[in-house]
């Protein structure tokens, strides 16, 4: 992929804007804002759980793939319904 820049004046306009912004921030004495990412406790727990069960999960996935490819996989409709029911009952 090629990036073609024809008008270099536009880049200098952006630089002027950045310099003005920095000067304004310095004059007002405010601390420059930075981007932050917060990961919820639930997400951290999910990550930990997925990492702990990695080998066991991989073995189960391989087993399921084998069952699907050989045509021996059986869908347990009752178990699926039991898992879905709490989500469907939510207001």
Question: Mean of the pLDDT scores?
Answer: 82
Strand percentage lies at under 5%
The overall strand count is 0
What is the helix/strand order? HHHH
Annotation field: number of helices: 4
Radius of gyration: 27 Å
Distance between the termini: 49 Å
Contiguous uncertain segments of 5+ residues: none
Main beta-sheet annotation: none
Shape: elongated
Give the structural class. Answer: mainly alpha
Structure explained in plain terms:
The protein is mainly α. It has helices at about 10-30, 40-50, 55-70, 75-90. About 70% of the residues lie in helices and about 0% in strands.
Write the layout of secondary structure elements.
Blueprint: H1 8-28, H2 41-52, H3 54-70, H4 77-88
Keyword list:
4 helices; 91 residues; 68% helix; mainly alpha
Quick overview of this protein structure:
The protein has helices at residues 8-28, 41-52, 54-70, 77-88.
